[in-house]
Amino acid sequence: DIQMTQSPSSLSASVGDRVTITCRASQSISTYLNWYQQKPGKAPKLLIYAASSLQSGVPSRFTGSGSGTDFTLTISSLQPEDFATYYCQQSFSSPPLTFGGGTKVEIK
Amino acid sequence: QGLLVESGGGVVQPGGSLTLSCTASGFTFSTYGMHWVRQAPGKGLEWVAFIRYLGGNKFYGNSVKGRFTISRDNSKNTVYLQMNSLRAEDTAVYYCAKDNMVQGVIGDAFDIWGQGTVVTVSS
Lengths: 108, 123
What we know:
Helix content of chain B: under 10%
Low-confidence stretches of chain A: none
Distance between the termini of chain A: 36 Å
Order of helices and strands of chain B: EEEEEEEEEEE
Oligomer: heterodimer
Mean pLDDT of chain B: 97
Structural class of chain B: mainly beta
Strand content of chain B: over 45%
Largest interface: A-B, 25 and 23 residues
Shape of chain A: globular
Radius of gyration of chain B: 13 Å
Number of strands of chain A: 11
Number of strands of chain B: 11
Distance between the termini of chain B: 40 Å
């Protein structure tokens, strides 16, 4: 199974800050990497697929990059509605599809 | 667009069974694979199962293999998760999710999610 490791597990930031979340795969997954946002009590929402493609309707302040084993989700200017937990997920090898442990973005 | 609505959650005793349903609308259900993903209380996301668009191929996570069965009825735009031999560690919110790839083979990203249904395994 491919293990996905996110860092940090949580972070505190202010509105307007640039935020970067990292996801590392236990083996190369090319660009088969997706990012989700989840708010408390809600279902996750797809933000980025194939490492860097923005899902329709997602604001352009969200960008994804990386390939191989190391990936990054960047929020260029954090907005109040962006405070949430973010998950990466690999789709290179299945079964199983696997998620990272999550990164909680909190208000400083 | 598209909408997924789950049902069937509830409280069940250890060793018991439960069947979840997920009904889709707003997209051509029969051309997309479908997933179940779960989230234990206070924990992260865990992929549970995937069924290809015609239902002929099914894949399972290690923790549910042999106990859970995914199926679909394309005439009803519905995917199911039959859960047997339930354990306390199966307690979670269960989400159904649409695969983002037309006629996908092994599953890709999850681009539409249901609201989730709660399964509690407790005596």
